[in-house]
Each structure stands twice: as structure tokens, then as C-alpha cells.
Amino acid sequence: MLFASPGIDTAAPKATRIDLFSAATPQMRAFHVTWLAFFVCFFAWFAAAPLMPLIKAEFGLSKDQIANINIAAVAVTILVRLVVGPLCDRFGPRRTYTWLLLLGAIPVFGLAFAQTYEAFLVFRLAIGAIGASFVITQYHTSVMFAPNVVGTANATVGGWGNAGGGAAQSLMPLVVAALVGLGVEHAFGWRAAMFVPGVAMVAMAFVYARYTQDTPQGDIVDLRAAGIELDGGKATGMAILRRAAANYRTWMLAATYGACFGVEIFIHNIAASYYVDRFGLSLTSAGLAAGIFGGLALFARALGGIASDRIALKKGLDGRALLLFALMLGEGVGLVLFGHAGSVMLAILAMTMFGLFTHMACGATYALVPFVDRKALGGVAGLIGAGGNIGAVAAGFLNKASASPQQCLIILGYIVAGTAVCALAVRFSASHKSDERALLDAALDARRTGDRAVNGAIPA
Question: Could you provide one GO biological process annotation from this protein's UniProt record (predicted)?
Fold first, then answer.
């Protein structure tokens, strides 16, 4: 049975530490399986991006058609991210993720059979639904980890998963090159390569269903059936989404996420082609250069979450918001420098700089998400996640309207720097901060008690 019940343990607490090399607990199994699932989804989402020079040549695509494809790749994600947050509240992340993986694999396979620009555009649009996997990823770790480490957990799984985009930039051209080396035509090679992420998604769906559960206590559907009230109470679906939408902090963070994660996926879509067109690099070299940006996600997003958790120990929720403001400013400056770079080396250095700030800002944003409204976590995560894709779509239209990609990047940098003020606008009431501080102190006490038990100071 695909969704066998893991059982109910009402006494199971949220994890107060991240035991990175363990998968013995439901919390750590969710941690590892969810980042791996997100990695596969992100790889599949952007698997076609580094192959666009080949696809452009085969279909004879114009600049506007390529821009349309890039916009399509992120547009539908906006709607799906709005839906999957409430679905997690209703059915749990385990079931939601499994079905997203299975259904999302269909258009990935479909790209391999596209024979026209129109067919390719439709499949690229449908693939965008895979991007909603991020919301499920953040939801799952948010309900599994306590306030003292939830920022680090969210940022780490998000960052390691995002690295799938960088892996796609570097590996997909190598897969095609290997196939061509075996005597396969380029036109068939990129199509055959699309089966790699498609098969990985199907396999990951069964892993997710088999090895995870929704919360430390058990699956949400089982808990609700047993009459056990969850954090969100009895509210489900649209009620949770409406509650999240009524909170102004949701929209401020949606704006900041549009300016960091939106830029991130925009760069994933254009980076390889940018290095080919502007600096004359080969497809493989351009893929490796673009892959540096995605590779930063392996540690930079986690660094943003870790920094947010550390600052919160002394400065509370206001400290988390101030950190996000500083990171957004750094990202904006780096983008402007990237647009002005006149050589490959300077471009890579500038990309690395703004990429570091971008990934850290993404981690710092979702380090704040669990504290916006605990009773509407799915709705908050979904709306803020959708904001990221709105930013990517807006960047795509800006690129389409700009005289050159360089001009687009410079303008984008100034917009990002201006959006940083939204982070400063995120404020919490004294009672809200007091309640969250109490939860944080309780988590720290639980962790200290566990440490003493392990060290033999008190009975385990």
C-alpha cells in the first residue's frame, strides 16, 4: 500500500537538534528525504535550461520565443504553490509530495517527444508545477523541527534541494555530450537526456511515500481522524489561505522572496545561454560556469538560515528581519556588478558574489516563515513561495523588454536593493515576540536536558 499508516505517537516532540548523519528518527528521515526530493524536482525543473542552445537551433527559436519558454517555466508555479500549501494542511506533506512527483514526471517525459515550439512551450509550462515542491519541503521541516533549529533546517533542505538546479546546469550538457560521443545525433541526445530527471522523479515518489510521515506524532489524516487537534486547528484549505493572506507580513516576505528566489530561478533559466551569447563559451563550458551559481546553494542558503537562528538567540524576530534586509542589499549590488562585467572572469566573480547573497537571503526569508502565523503555516508558506515565482516571471518580462540581458541585470539589481525595505517592514507585536521567545526557550531547555541525558548527568 502506497500510504501505509506510520501510526500515532502523541508524545513525540519536534526535534531540537539536527543529527545530520542520522535517519533514525521521523524528523531526520523527513529532513533527508525532503531535500533529496526537492533536489530531484529542481534538477527536473531546469534540466532543459542548459540545453536551450541546442533546442533553439533545432526549432529555430527567436529571442521572444525563448523568453516565452523561460517565463512559462516559472509562471504556472505561482498557482500551484498557492494550492499545495493548503493541501499540506489538509492531507499532509507526505501525500502531497508523492503525487506532485508522480504527476510532475509526465511533462518532463513529454519534452522528449515535443516536435514543435508550441508543444515544447506547453510541456515547459506544465513542468513549472514541479517548482511547488519547495513549499512542501519547507512545510515538512517546519512541522518537524523546534524554533531553535527550524531556520537552519528550512534553509539547509532548501539549499541542498536548490543545488539540483546547479547540478542540472553542469550535468545535462555532459549527458548529451556522452550520448553524442556514442554516436547519437544532437537532436536525439537532448531528448534522451530528459529521461534522466523523469525516471528520478518517479523513483523519488515511492521513496517519499515509504520513508516519511507528516509530523513527529504521525500523519495528518490519521491525527485528524483520531480527533487530535493540529496547530492549525480545524481550519483547512481556503480558510487557512485567507488567514495567511490577511497577514501583512506574508506579503512583505513574498516581495523579498520574489527578489531573491525569483532572481535565482531567473538566473538558472538564462545563465548558460548568457555565457554562450555574451562571451562565446561552448555549451559544456557555459554549463559549468552557470553551475557555480546553483552550486552555492549547497551551503549558502543553509548559512542564511544558520545566521538567522544565531541572531534570533540575541535579537529575536527583529534580528531575523534585519539580517534579511542586509542580505537583500548585498544581492542588489552584486547583480549590478554582474551586469557591468566585461569578461568571463569578472562575470563569474560577480555572479558568485551576488549568488552568495541571493541564496543566503532565500534561507533567511524562510527562517522567518514559521513565525508569521503558526495556525496558517501552509497558507503562509504557499503565498510567500508564490511570491518567488512572481518575481521570476517579472524578471522574465523585464528581460524581454530590455535592450540586452546586461541592461536587464542592472535594472534588476536596483529593484532588488529597493525591495530590501520590505524586510524592515516585517514587525511583530510584543505579545507575539513573547510567545515565540517562550517556545524558543522551551526548545533550548529540551535540548539541554537531552544533552545532559546523553552525557550521563541524568537518567536517559
Answer: nitrate assimilation
pLDDT on residue 122 = 96
Cα 268 from Cα 77, distance rounded (Å): 15
Contacts of 441 (CB under 8 A, 6+ apart): none
Alpha-carbon Rg for the chain in angstroms: 22
Cα separation, 210 vs 215, whole angstroms: 15
Which helix or strand (DSSP H or E) is residue 236 part of? none
Full DSSP string of 197-213: HHHHHHHHHHHHHHH--
Question: Could you tell me where the beta strands, DSSP code E, fall in 249-395?
Answer: none
Locate all alpha helices (DSSP H) within 280-429, ordered by sequence.
283-295, 300-340, 344-368, 377-401, 405-419, 421-424
Residue whose entry in the numeric block shows the C-alpha cell 535517519: 23
> Where do the structural domains in the chain lie, given as residue ranges?
26-220+233-443
Q: How many CB atoms lie within 10 A of CB 48?
A: 27
First-to-last alpha carbon distance for the chain, in angstroms, is 36
Question: Can you say how many angstroms the Cα of residue 2 is from the centroid of all Cα atoms in its chain?
Answer: 26
Please determine, for residue 398, whether its predicted confidence score (pLDDT) is greater than 50. Answer: yes
Q: Which CATH number fits domain 26-220+233-443: 3.40.50.10490, 3.90.1150.200, 1.10.8.60, 1.20.1250.20?
A: 1.20.1250.20
- For 422, what's the count of Cα atoms within 13 Å in the CB-facing half-sphere? 23
What is the length of the chain?
Answer: 460
What residues have CB less than 8 Å from 442, skipping those under 6 apart? none
Q: Can you give the pTM of this predicted structure? A: 0.83
DSSP symbols for 48-69: SGGGHHHHHHHHT--HHHHHHH
Q: What is the mean pLDDT of residues 389-411?
A: 94
Q: Which of 202, 40, 49, 193 is nearest to 131 (CA)?
A: 40
